[in-house]
Amino acid sequence: MSTPMTGRTHDRAFVAFVDDNYFPGFVVLLKSLTLTNPDVEADVVVLHDGLSLANISRAVSLRPDLRFVRVETERYERYRKGSAANYLYTKAYYILDAFRLTGYRTIVTLDTDMVVLDRIDDLFALDAPFAAVPQFFDSDGGRKLNSGLLVFDQTYTDGTFAARLDAIGESGQYELERHDQGVITAALDGDYLHLPRRYNWVKRATRRGGVPPQDTAILHFTGKFKPWDGGEHGYARLEALWHQYDVSDAAFLAACARLAEQGLIADPTAATAYKARGAGVPESDARGPVAAQREATRLRAAGDFAGAVALLESHALEAGQLDTGYALDLAASYRAVSRYEDAAVLASTALASSRAGEAHVALAEVAWIVGDLDGAREHARSALALEPLRHKARLVHARAVRETPDAEVVASRDPDGITLSHAAFYVDPLGNYGDVLLPAAVREVATHVRGVAEWHGVHVHQLFDEAAVEAVNETRGLLVGGGGLFLPDTSPNGNSGWQWNVPDASLDRLRVPLGLVAVGYNLFPGQEFLGSRFRESLTRIVERAELVGLRNRGSIERVRALLPADLADRVTYLPCPTTILGLVPGTAYTDPDPVDDTATRDVVYLNVAYDRSALRFKDEYPAFLAQIDAFVRGLAGVAQVRIGAHTIPDERIAVDLYREHGTRVGVDSFFRLGIEETTRLYREAALVVGMRGHAGMIPFGLGTPILSLVSHPKLRYFLEDVGRPEWGVDVAERHLGARLLELSTDVLGAQDRYRAQVAEARLALYDTSVAALRPFLEAM
C-alpha cells in the first residue's frame, strides 16, 4: 500500500532513509542541503525504522519542517538477500519505501553518506520520469545505476513500480550483493535518464590524495569508511569537503539566520524561525517557546491548526532539544493537519517522561485514525496501565476493540435489499445521544426508501485511505452523513478541512455513487474555516457526488456561497432523518396508534449544552443561569421540569441551578438510557426545551412539541424550515426566563393544537426527504 503524504507542504521532496548509526551523516547532509539550496521549495522527508528520541529531537531543532515516515520493514524481510554479515543486509532496502510516498510530483532521494556542495534544484526540472547516475565501476554500459541519488516522478509512486520491486526482491532475480541498487537496476533494465556524474560523485572515482571535479554537486562517501567514523587514509582532501559542513548546530543556525535576513530561505515559517534563533531570542522572552505553546493552544481552539504548527515549528529552533510538553503540543498540532507520521514521532519522544500516559494516548489516537487498530489498543492499554482513570485512553481503547466502527448501530434491514456503505460519526460509549441515534436514523430512512440488506460502516474521523476506498467500492454506493459534518474542529484534519477525513486522491479512486445525506454547516457565529482546504474539498465533493443533501436551508445558503456558480444548484434540501422517524413504518420509532392521553403529559424536558461554552454564552453565563432558574421556578405547579441530558456535560445545568439558586431539578441521562427508553420519554413528554439541535429535531420527529434555546444558527435554520421561527428564543434575550415561561405555558395549555402543528410540519419534511433520496437510491 502506498503512503499518502497528506501533511506535505510542497509537491516535490528530498527523501533520505536515516537510522541512528548513520545519523551523524544525515546531520551533515541536512546542513549542506539547507545551506547550498536554501531557497528550494521542497519537503524533506525522513524515512526511518525507529530513530532514538534524542536524534529526533535534534533533527527537529535543526529543521522543524522535516516529515518523518516510518518504513514498512516487514516487506523487506521477504526479500532474498546476499551475505547476512553485511550491515546493509536489510536496511539498504528501506529507501525503496520512497516509491510508496504518494502526492509528490517529483522526488529526489539522497543517501546519508552524501554531502551537497552545489545547487541541485535543477533535478526537479528534468524532462524524464526517472533519472540516476550510472554505477562508476562495471556499469554494464550504463544499465547499472548508483542508487545513492534517484530522481523520479509520480508515475513511479502509483504502486505499480513498488509492486515490481517487491516481486523482484522476493524472487531474488537481481544482483544480491547490490541490495536496493540491484533491485532497482533489475526493475529498470537501463530505462532511465543517465545523469552527469557531478550529481553523484563517488569517493572511489577520485584517486587517493586527489579532489573531485570543481563542478561536483554531490559528493558520495561510498564504502566502509565514513567521514564521521574517522575516514579513510588518502582521502583527507575529499573528507575536508564533508567536514566544512560538519559545523556546530549553533553555527549552522547562525548561517541560516543570515540567509533568512537576505530573503534566501524559501519557507517563510523557517525564515522567521532562523531569524529568531540568530537574534539570540531567550526562552524566557515573550516570543519564546513557552509563550509559543500558550499561543498555539489558543490557535488550535480557534481552529487555526496550520497556524499552530507554523508557530511551534518556528520556535522549535529556539528550544534546541525539545522538552516533553513542547513535543506533545507539536504532536497534537501535527495530528490536526494530518501529519500523522510526524505526530507519532514527536509523541514518542515523551514516552520515557512523567507524561508517558499522555504520550501513549496521543499515539493511540494517531494509530486509530490511520487504521492501525493493534497499535491503538496497545498504546491505549499502556496508557491505562500508567493512569487507570485517564478517560481518553478508555475511549480510544473502546473504539479500537469494536469489531467494526458501526458495530453498535441498530437499524432495520431488508433481506432482499442492497449493500451500502455509510460514512458517519459513530460515537464513543456514553457519547452524545443525538449522535448515537443519527446513524440509525439515516439507515432507517434509506431502507424505507430503497431496501438495504447490509451496511458497511466507515468512521468519518478515520483516514479514508486506499484500503477504505476499496472496501467501499465493493458495495453499491456510499452515503456520507447526516449530522453537522461541515465543522473544522471536532476532529480536525488537513485532508479535507471538515469532519470526513478524505484526501482528494481517495475521492478520485471512488467508483460507486456518492451521496451526502442531511449534512449540516455547523459553524458557530465567529467561527470560520481558515485557509482554502475546506473550500477545495467541498468543491471536489460536490463535483463528484450524485446527491448533495444539506439538512437545512441556512446551511445550503452558506455552502452555495463557497462554491463556483456552476455547482451551487447541485446542493439540495434534505432534512435530518431524525425529524421524520415517527413516520417511518416498522421501526422502533414508528408512531404508536393514536391515543388521547395529552392530559397525562406533564413533563417538560430542559436541555442545555456546554460544549464551546464561550461561543454559546460569551461572558453572560451567570445571567443565563438566572433566567433559566426563573423559568424553572415559574413552571412549578404547572409541569414537572426535568433535565434531558444528551451528554455527560449536559447534566451540569442541574448542578449549577442548585449551587447558585438552590433549585433542584431531576435529571434523565439519555446517553445512558438507550434508544428505546429515551424514545419513550421524548414521545411522552409534553414539551422539550432544548439547546442542542437534536434536542429539538428528535422529539419533533417523534411528534412532541419543542422550543429551542438558540445558541447556534442551526436551531434557527430548522425552525425557519418548518415555518415556526416563533418556537425559538435566543439565549442572550434579556427576558429569556419570562419568554420561555410564556411560550411553555401556551404549549402546555394547548397540547393538541401544538402536536397537530408538529404533525403537519413533519409530514412535509417526510415528503421532501423521500423525494430527494428516491432517485439517488433507486439508481443503484
From TrEMBL:
Keywords: Transferase. This is Polysaccharide pyruvyl transferase family protein. Pfam families: Glyco_transf_8, PS_pyruv_trans. InterPro entries: Glyco_trans_8 (IPR002495), GNT1/Glycosyltrans_8 (IPR050587), Nucleotide-diphossugar_trans (IPR029044), Polysacch_pyruvyl_Trfase (IPR007345), TPR-like_helical_dom_sf (IPR011990). One of its GO terms (molecular function) is glycosyltransferase activity. The keyword Transferase applies. The keyword Transferase applies. Residues 432-710 form the Polysaccharide pyruvyl transferase domain. It comes from the Bacteria. PANTHER family: GLYCOGENIN SUBFAMILY MEMBER.
